[in-house]
Structures
1.
Amino acid sequence: MSLFKARDWWSTVLGEKEEFDQGCLCVADVDNSGSGQDKVIVGSFKGYLRIFNPHPVKPGDEVQPEDLLLEVQLLEPILQVEVGKFVSGTEGLHLAVLHCRKLCVYAVSGTQGNVEHGNQYQIKLMYEHNLQRTACNMTYGPFGGVKGRDLICIQSMDGMLMLFEQESYAFGRFLPGFLLPGPLAYSSRTDSFITVSSCQQVESYKYQVLAFATDADERQDTEQRKLSSGKKLAVDWVLNIGEQALDICVVSFNQGVSSVFVLGERNFFCLKDNGQIRFMKKLDYSPSCFIPYCSVQEGTINTLIANHSKILNVYQDVTLKWATQLPCIPVSVKVANFQDLKGVIVTLSDDGHLQCSYLGTDPSLFQAPKVDSREINYEEMNAEMKELQKIIREATKTQDILPESEKQRGVTVTAEVSPDLDEESQAIDSEVKAGAVPSVTVKITIQSRVTAQKPSLAVCVQAPLAVTCDQFVFDDLEPDSSETVVLSVFLKENCSPPELEGTCMVSYNIPTGIPRVSQCNFSLPLKLVCFPAQPSKAANHKLTIDTNKPPISFVTIFPDFVDPSEGDQANALGFHFLTGSKTTLLASKTSQRYRIQSDHLEDLWLVTKELIHRLEEHFKKQNCKDFACTFSGSIPLQEYFELIDRHFELRLNAEKYQELLSERAVQFRAIERRLLTRFKDKTPAPLQHLDTLLEGTFREVIALADAAEENQANMFQAFAKLKSATHLVIMLISLWQKLSTDQLAILEATFLPLAEDTQEL
C-alpha cells in the first residue's frame, strides 16, 4: 500500500450501473477551441457519450453542472472513442465512435450562450460506416505517410483489419494464424500496425504489405487464394513475449526515435522499431492499464502503470519514481492539460468512477491530544489480571475440539479374548470343509467417564474370519457406567487368514454434540485356525530362523499344541490348518535354529509369526533384553512372484467375464425387444427361431455368471494367499536387514495398502 494518496482535483461517478473498458476514455481538444485545453470524452457500454470540461474552483470541489459539456445516448454500446483528423477537406479534430457493427464520426461544436447558462454544445454526424464484421478495437494515424489527415483501422473479432480512408472504405485483410483479437497500435515512424497474437508474440505488419496483399473478400477457398494475383500477407517482425498483452502504445518524444510499449500480464516491455527489446520490467503485481506520457530526461521515458491493488506507479524506464494510492481500480488512464493545471492524471474505473488527480502530498494538520496523566492503581490492575487469567483457564479447560490424551478419554473400550476355544462352536454358515469349525469368545467392555450419547460398537475382523455379530447399539451411557458384550470369532471362508487380529471401535457424541471415537485391537489365538498334528518330514518350502539363544523346548513356548507327556524331548511340532494344509516346526538340538516347512509358501506365515512372537515373549519374561532373530537364507521371491501372477491372471479373467456378461446381456435384451414386438403385432409373424436364440442366450448368461462367481471365489483365496506371502516376505526382509520398527512400518505401508480386494482399487 502506498504511503501517499493521489490528490483529488475533480471527480464524478457516471450514470447508474454502467460499464466501461479500456477504449472508453479519451482526452483531446475535441471542440477545436484553440486554447490547448483538453476535454474528457467518455463512452459507455450502455451507449452514453459524455464530454467533460473540468474546472473546479478549488481541488476536490463537487462537480458543477457546467462541467458536463454534452451527454447524448447513442443507440448502440460504445467500444472505443478516439479524436483525430477524420474528415476530408479540413484539419480540424473530429470524434470517432466505434460500435459493434458501426463506425461513426462526429463533429463537436459549441455555441456562445446569450444568457448566464453558458455555452451550448452539440454533435453532428459527419459520416458513418456499417461494418460487415463485429468490431473489437481500432487505431488511427497517417497511414502510408499521408499529410494532414488520419485514416482509421478497425480490427474485427475474427481477425480482419478493415481500413477506412475517411469517408470511404479502402480494403480489408485477414491476419494470418489468427485466433483471438489482441491490442492494436499504429507506428507512424515505420508505417506499420503492431498487435499481440494468441501465440503470445508481438507482430508488426507494414501498411504497404497490407495494401498489396490478397484482398479479404477474395479469400473464399484455398484454390482461389492460390490463383489470386495478390501477395500473401507477411509479417515484418515477430517477438515472443510469452504472455498475453493488455495494451500497446507507440510513442515518439525524441525526434527520430520511437518506442513500442507493451504491457503484459506480468511484465512491461519497451521495444525498438525493429522489434528488439530496449528494456523490460518484471512486475510483482497484476497491472490493469498504462500510458507512457513524457520524456523528462534525455533517452528515458516516463510511464504510468496502474494495478489491481489500486496503486498508480510512476516509472522512469524501469526505475520506480513514485507510487500513489487511487480510490478504485482504473481500466484506462490518460494525461491531460487543463486551463488551470498541466499534466493532470485522468483515470476511469469499470463502474464509471472518473477522476482527475495530481501527485503530491498535503501536510498533516493532526496533532495528538495530550494524555491525561493519572496515577496507576496496582491493586486494581492485579485484581483485573487475576480475573482475566481465570477466564482464560476456564476457556481452555472446556475446549472440546482439542484432542484428548489417552488418560483423559471419556470412553474406553477393552477386548478380552478367551484363552480356550468355545466348548460348543458358535460358527454359523462356515464354508470350511473340516468336520468341526472352532470359535473363540471375545468379551468387549465399554467404560464411560462422561455422558456418552448414542454410543455404537463396531467389531471388525479381516475375511476369511467372521464374527457372530459385528454391530451393537446402546442407550446413552451415564458417567462411571459400563456395558459388556460377548461375541465369537470363527473361520468362515475355506482359506487360511493372513491376519489373526481384530478391531473394536466405539463412536459416540459428548453432550456438546461433538462426535468422538475410541478403539482398541485384539489378537486371536493360532488354534482358532489350526490344530496339532503329526510332524511331516518332506516339504516343498523351508525357512530357517537363527537366534542368539539356545533353542527352547516346544512344551514351554507352545503348551497349547504339545502333549505334556512328551516332556522336554519335543523338538518337532505339526500344525494342521482347517483348510487341509500342514506345516511343521522343527527345533535344532545342536544349533540355535528353528526350521518351518510346508508344501505351500503362504502357510509358513502364521506359524513363523507365532514362533517369533512367543520366543520374544518368553525371553522378555526372563528379563533377557539382547534376544534377536535373524534370517540368512534366500528370500523365496520366485514362489512369491508366482502367487502375484496367479492373482493377476484371475483379475484379468474377472474383467473378461464382466465384458462377456455385458455383451450377452445386451444381446438378451435385444432379442427380448424383438420377441415383444412380434407378440404385440396384430397379425402374428413367425418367430424365426427367436425363442430358441433367447433360451440359448439365457443359458450363456447363467453359465457366464456362474463362471464369474467361481472366479471371484478363486480370486479371494488367491488374494488371501498373496497377502500372507507378502507378510512373510516383509518379515524375512526385516530379519535379514535387522530393520527397526519404523522401517518395518514403512515397508508394510508400501506393500500392504489393501485391506480387501476389489476391481476398483
2.
Amino acid sequence: KQAQLMEVLKKEVRAMLIAAKEGLTPAQLEEQYMAMVCKPLPLQDLGFQSTLEMVKHMPEVVRVSSYSNGTFILKAIADDTTKGIAKLVACQKDRTRTKSWKKTAMKANAASPSKNIKHPQHSPWSARTPALPVTVKAELQDLLGSSPLLLKDLEKAFLRRFGRVFPYRQYGFSSVLEAIRSVSDSIAVVEQAKTGSLLVLRKYLANVVEQEEVPRAPAAEMPPLEPIYDTESFCQPALPMKCEPVGTEAVDLGDHLKQPQDSQQFLPKKLTLTPEIPPDAVQDSSLCSLPPLQRRCLVGVVVEFVASPSHFYIHICSRETSYKLQDLMFEMRHLYSHKLVSDQYAMPDSAVRPGQLCCVTVSRWWYRVIIHRVVSDQEVEVFYVDYGHLQVVQKSWLSLVKWHYLKLPAQAIPCSLAWVKPVEGTWSPAATLLFKNLCRLKELVGIVDEYVDGVLHLFLCDTSTKEDVYFHSVLRDKGYADVCGENIPSQEFKELNPSALYIQPSGKETAELEEPYLCLQQESLDADGEAAALKLHGAEPCD
C-alpha cells in the first residue's frame, strides 16, 4: 500500500516540479501540494520526517540542489514521457515573480538559481526570511479563533485539531515562538508570569486584557477546494440533513464589526439602503471575471465541474489565486459563524431575486453565489461563482455578502475542450463519464486555444502518468469524438451560461491581465513544435 502511494506521489511531485521553471523549495512544494489536493504531503504515512527526506528517496524524479546559505531547490528530472512538456516549460517566462524580482533578475541575468552557485546571495531564494505559508497562517487563526491558547499547549492543540504536528521547522524556524512572532500582525503573545505566554488573535486582544471569556466554537478543518455536491444530480434540491447551517453562541467581536461612518462611499450611488440591511452589504453589484488568457499559453488547471467535454469549469492553479480563495473562505467562515454577524447579515425576503449576489452556507463553509431562480417560497437555485455549478438550496442558508468580498474575481472559468465534436451530435453519457474520470482530482496542463462567445476553448493534458495523456486524443481513440481544426461553439453554454449572465468581464487592459494568473506563459511555439506538442497530426476542419 505504501509502494502504491509512493508511485502516485512521485507522479504528482514530478508534475508540480515540471510546471515550476525555477524549481521549488521544500516549503513551496508543500504549499503546491496542499493547493492541489487539499491535504498535506503524506509524510507520516510513508515514514518520512520531512519533505527533504521524502524527495531524497525519489532520485529518479527530483534533483536536489543545495546552496551555501542552507537553501534547497527541488527540480524535476524529466523521463522519456515528460521531456516534451519539460522542453515547453523551459521556454516559458516565469510570470509569477514580483515585478521587482523580475527586473533584478533580468539585469543580473540570474533568473535561475543554478546560474548563481558561485554567488548564492544573488539567488532569489537566498534573500527570503523564514515565513509560514498562507495555509498554516489560516490554520493558526482558525485554531485561536475559538479561544486563546498557552504557547506551551499550541503544538498539542494543533495536532489534535489538524491531525499533524505544527510544521514550524519545515519553514526554517528554530522554535514555535519564533514562528508565532513571524505572524505578529495577526497573533499577539501576551506574557503572563504564572501560566506562561498566551497566544491571542489581535482582533480579540482587548477582550482578553479585560478578562472577558471568549466562548468556544466547533473545531474547524481546512476548507474544501470545491463545494460538497453530487455532480450527477447537481440541479437537485440539496438535503437539509447534510448541509444544515451550524448555529453558535453570540460573541462580542469588538470594534472591528462596527460600521465606519464613511462606509457609504463604497456603495453604488443609486442604492437606497433599507434599515435592516448593513451599509457594507452588497445589494446591487456584480463580480468581475478573471482576465482572459493569451492564446497558446500553458496554464496549470484543475477541472471543478463537468457537464460534458464541451461544458465544464476550471480553476487556474497558482499560489496567488488558490490562496486568495482559501483565505476568503476562512475569513467568511470565521465571520459568519458568529450569531451576531449571521443575524446582522441574514438575507431579507426583499433581496431574494434572480441575479442577487450573496453567500450560502453548506456543511459549515460559506460560498459566494448568485441567485439564478426562485424555486419556491423555501428554495432558490444558486450559481457558485467560484466553482461553476448550479444547486437548489434553502433560502434560510443565504446571507448578505460583505462588500469587500467582491474584490476577488469569480474563479470559475467556463470551458470547452478544443478541436473536438461528438460523433453522435451530442455527447453520450459514456463520453462524459470518461472525460470526468480523466479530469478527476488532478492538476492538468491546459493549452489555451481561443475564446468563443466568452467560453475558453483549451486542450487538456495529464502529465502525472507515465505517458502524457491528451484528452482529445483519448476521446477520439475511444470513438466518442472527432478531432478537427476548429472550435465548435458549445451548445450547452448557448442554452445556459450563468457566467455570461451574471459575471462582468474584467476591466483591466489586456496587456496587464494575464500576469497575476498564469502559471506558465508561453514565449513562442513554432508551427512544427505546436503540432508535436498537441499531437494533432492529420486534423481536418469540422463540417
3.
Amino acid sequence: MSATMDTESTYSGYSHYSGHSKKAHRQGRDRHKSPRSKDGSRSEKSVTIQTPPAEPLLGNDASRTEEGQDDNWGETTTAITGTSEHSISQEDIARISKDLEDSVGLDCKRYLGLTVAAVLGLLVFLTPVAFILLPQILWRDALEPCGTVCEGLFISVAFKLLILLIGTWALFFRQPKADIPRVFVFRALLLVLIFLFVFSYWLFYGVRILDSKDTNYQGIVQYAVSLVDALLFIHYLAIVLLELRQLQPMFAVKVVRSTDGESRYYSLGHLSIQRAALVVLENYYKDFTVYNPALLTASKSRAAKHMAGLKVYNVDGPGNNASGQSRAMIAAAARRRDSSHNELYYEEADHERRVKKRRARLVVAVEEAFTHIKRLQAEEQQKAPGEMMDPREAAQAIFPSMARALQKYLRTTRQQQYHSMESILQHLSFCITNNMTPKAFLERYLSPGPTLQYDRDRWFSKQWTLVSEEAVTSGLQDGIVFVLKCLDFSLVVNVKKIPFIKLSEEFIDPKSHKFVLRLQSETSV
C-alpha cells in the first residue's frame, strides 16, 4: 500500500478554475493505484548512461493549465493555493534510493578505472629509466665503459619518452563526456596488453640482468631502448583501435523521438552499442528541437473531450449475450458523432492565425525598440563622445516596450517555460554589444531551437537509460534496435547496414562524337 505525500504549492499568473485541487488529488491517487507494467515477456538488458547534470524543466505546471488560461494573463495576477497533483509513494522513494546507489557504484567504477590506468601509466614511464639506473646503483664498478654510444642512446630514450608522454596525454587524458555502463573493450584490452608487456620485460630483466649482474652496460641500455620502441608501437595500435577504426561509415541509424515522432539519420562506423548510444545523444542535443510537452496537451485534451461526449447504453440487458450487436451499434453511433477532424482543422487554422498575428506584433515591437536604442546611442555620443551606454542598461531600458508582445507570442507558441526574463535580458544585451539586428535577436524566439541553445535547468534529460536485447559491449549489426529512455520520452534507434555499392565504368570512344556532314550537289547552299 503506497502512502502519498501531497505538498502545498502556489501558482501566480494563472486564472482560477473550480475543482482544481480535488481533480489533481484524484488524478494523483488514481495514478498510484494503477498497476505497474512488467516486462517479463522480453529479455531486455537495461543499463544507465549518466549525462551532465540538469534540473527538471521549470514551468511544467504552467503547461498543464494551458487550456484554462486566457490571452490577457499578464494583466490579471490571481494567486491561488491548492493541493498539488505531484505525490511521492513508498515505491518512488525506493526507486530513487536505488538510482542513487547505482550512481554511487558508477562513480566508484569510474575512479577505480582511472586509478588503475594512472598506476599502469606511471609504471610504463618509470620502467625504462629504472632499467638504465639500477646497474649504475647496484654494481657500478663492475660495468664496462660505454662512452659515446650510451650517451646517444640516452638522448634517444629521452626524446622517445617525451613523444610517448605527449601522445598518451593527447589520446587518453581527456575530460569524460559521459559514464558508460560497461567497460570499453578495446581500452581494457590495451591496458592488459601493456601490463603483460611490461611484466614480461621486468621478468626477463630480473632473470638475465639483475641475477647475473651483467657487465655489458651498452646491451642493458639497448634493452631499455627496445622497450620504449615497443611502447611507441603499442601507442600506434591504440590510435588505430580507438580513433581510426570508427571513422569509416558502415551503418546508418535512424533516431525517432517517441513523443512527437521527430527523426534524424546518422552514419556510424564500427562501434559498440553503448558508444553508438553516446554518439546518438551527442547529436540529439544539437540536432533535435527542444522537447516541449506543452505541444502535446492540445491533442490529449481534444481526445478527452471527444470521449466525454460519447454515451454508452446497455440495450441488450445484463443477461443477454448479443454483445456483438451492441458493440456494432456503439461503433456506428461513435462514427456518426465523430467530428474530430473538423475540430482539428479549425483549431489548427485558428492557431496559425494567432501565431502570425502575434509574430507580426512582436517583429514591429522589436524593430521599434532597436531603433530607439540606436537613437539613444547617437544622443549619448553627441553629448559625450568618450562615453558609451552600458549594454545591460540599454537592454533594461528597451525591454519593457517589447515585453508584452514577446510574452504573448511565447505563450501562444508554448515556449514560455524555456525563456526567463533574465535569459532574455542577457540575450538582448549580447545583441546590443555585438551590434546585431532585430532579426538576429528574434531568431531564438521565432522558432524552437536545439536543446543546447537553452539553459541546462530547462532540460528534461538528466539521466538516460539504455535498453537493448543485445549486450551493450557488442558491435553494431544490421537490424539491431535499442532504446534510450529518459524521464519524459525515449529515443528509438534502428540500425541499418550501408549496402555494398558496385560501381562500374563505361568507356565512351572519343571518335563516336564525330560526324560528317555530306551535302548533295543538287542542293542549293
4.
Amino acid sequence: FWEMCCDLKRRFLLLYATQKGQAKAIAEEIRQQAGAHGLEADMHCISEMDKYNLETEKDPVVIVISTTGTGDPPDTARKFVKKIQDTTLPPDHFAHLQYGLLGLGDSEYTFFCNGGKTVDQRLQELGAQHFYDTGLADDCVGLELVVDPWIDGLWLALKEVFLLQREKEGMSSHIDAVSSSVSAAPHIAHELNLSSEVQNLKLEDEGVRSSDVLTQKLVNTSTVDSAGDTEPSLVRSVPPLSQSALNIPALPPEYLEVQFQDTHGQNPHLSSLISEGTTFEVPVTKAVQLTREDAIKTALLLELDIADTVFDYQPGDAFFVICPNNANEVEELLHILGLSEKGEFFVCVKVKQGTKKKGAAHPQHIPIRSTLKFILTWCLEIRAVPKKAFLRALVECTSDAGEKRRLQELCSRQGASDYTHFIRDSNICLLDLLHAFPSCKPSLNLLIEHLPKLQARSYSVSSSNLYQPGKLCFVFNIVEFSACPARPVSRKGVCTGWLAELVAPLLHPSEKTLDTKGGNSSTEKISIFARPNNSFHLPADPSVPFMMVGPGTGISPFIGFLQHRQKLREEHTDWEFGETWLFFGCRHQDRDYLFKQVSYLTLILDELRCFLENGTLTHLKVCFSRDSSTAEVAPPKYVQDVIRLKNTLSYVFFLYLLFCRDKKHMADGVSDAVVDILSKEMQVDKLEAMKILATLREARQYLQDVWS
C-alpha cells in the first residue's frame, strides 16, 4: 500500500515562517520524516516568494508558522501576509489550493497563535481548502503536545489527498485496488496512524528491534528503582515508565563535519551575524540600580550614547542587544568536550558528503571561518532547552547503559511527562545534561547541528530622542534562574546577566575606575540594532487623552512617552494637550518604587513627581501588592484594582503595556478590569463590553506590548 501511494504522487510544498527558529526546526523535522514515508517535501521559508507560487500550486501545501510580539505573524511572513491581504483579490483566488497549517504560539499571551490564525483565516476567505485540520501548538505547556500528534496524522492526510487527486485524473481502477487492499488488511491501515517520528521496530544504527534493546536495558534500571528510589528525577525513572517498551524518535542523520585549522586570523565582526538590520556599536555611559539590594528583583537602567550613529527611534520602539553566552559556561563546555586546548583554533564547518539529511545546508548563523570559542560564545544558544531530537542524538553518544536508557525515556512518547517536568519546565540546558549524564560525550558537529542560533534580546526604549538627543535608555530586571534538583546551580539570564556584569564598574565604582574629574572612565560598548514598533506609540493628535498601565519595569517605556510629551509642551505652547494617566504597580514601596528615589551613584531620579508638577502627567496612581496596611479600608493592591476603583475609562485612547513575569494573569487582569468598567459605564452586558474592547484594539486605541 505504501509503495502504491508513493507511485501515485510524492511532492508537497512545505512553507515555514519563523521568528526564532522554532517553526523552521519543526518544518525540517517534517521534511526529514517525509522521506521515510516516500514523500518529498519542497521546503522554503515563506519569505522566499520567488521559489514558490501559491497561485499556480497544484500539490498540497503544509504551512508551519509562529507568532511574535502581540499576536503578529513573524517578520519573515510580513510580505506574504501583506500580499494575501490585498482586498482586490477575488474570493476564489486560492480555490485550487489544498493546505494544512500548524500554528505555534503561547497561551500566556492574549492573542494566542494569532500569526497562524491570521494566515489560516485569510486563505479560507480566498477559497483555499483544508486537507488537514489546523493545529495550534502552545509553548506554555509544550509545543510537542500538539506538534507530535499533528505530524503523526499528517501522512495519512497527505496520502488521501494524493489518492483523490489521482482519482480525479481518471485512475479509479487503480484506486479501487488500493481501497480493496486497505479493507482486506485493516492492520495496514492502522499502521498509517503510527507516528512517522517514532520507530517502534528498530533503532536505525543498531539494526535490531528497539523493544528488545530497551527491555534488556530495563533490567539495569529496575535494579536501581528497587533499591529504594521511589521518586523520579532527571536521571532516574520509576514504574511504569522504567518498565515500558519505548517509542523513540528516529535518529536524526548527521550532516556537518568540523575541521580544525590554525590559530591565525580574525573572527568575523558581530554585524556579520545579523541579517535583520544595521548594527551599531555604542558605549554604555551610565548605569543605575533602580531597586534596593533587598528587592525581590534587581532592576537596572542603562544609558547608551548613540550621538555618533544614525540610529533613530521613537518612544515605544524596541531594539535588540547582541549578547554572548556566559564565558565561564563556554569554558566549562569546552572542558567537558575535551576541547579546552582547541578554543582559539579556527574551525571550518562543512556539509558532510553523502549525508542522508534532506536539503542539508551550512547553517546561516555559523561563520564560514571562526574560532571554536567564537562559535560557542556568539553563535549557538548553549542555554537552549534540548529538543527531543537532540536527546535522541545524545543517546548514541552515551556509553553507560542506565544513562542511555534514561535519555531514551526522556525523548520517547511514553516519557513525555518526564520530559516536560524535568527538562522543559526545569529549563535544563546542554551543560546540565552533560553533568547529569557523564558518560555522554557528544561530538562538536552534533552540537552545531542541534543547538539553535543565539538570538539577540529585545528591550523597550525608556527615553525620548527629542528630550535627550543622542541618548538611549532602557530598563530591565536581571533574570534569575534558581537552582533546582535537576539543575543544582543558579544562573542569571544570558543577556541580563552579561549586561549586569558588564556595567558593574559603573554601578560600584572604585578609585581605580574614576578619572580625575570624578567621572567613570569605563568605555564598555554593546552592539545594538533597531526593532521598530509600528503601533505602540503616542497618539498622533496630542489633544487626545491617554492612559498608561505599567506594572514593574513595564513603566519604563512610559518614561520615554512622558519625556517626549514634556518636550513637545515646551516647544509648542500653543498646542492643546490631552490628559495623561499613569497606573503603576510594584511589590514594595520602599524597595521597588522605580524612578521615585534612587540613592545609588548619588543620583536621584524623581521623574514621576517632576512630570506631575510640570503638568506633563495629569494623574499618577500607584499601588504596592506586597505591602501590608493597617488602614480600615485596605488600599488596592494591583493596577487592575486601581483602574476599577477610579472608573477612568471616559477616554478614547488607551496605551497599555505589560512587562511582567506572570504575563498572562496580569494581562488578563487588566483586560478584565477594562471590560468591567466598560460594562458599567456604557450599561451593557459583559459580552458586549468585550466586543467594544475588541473594537478598540482593532482601531489601535487599546494597545498592548506584552513581554516576559
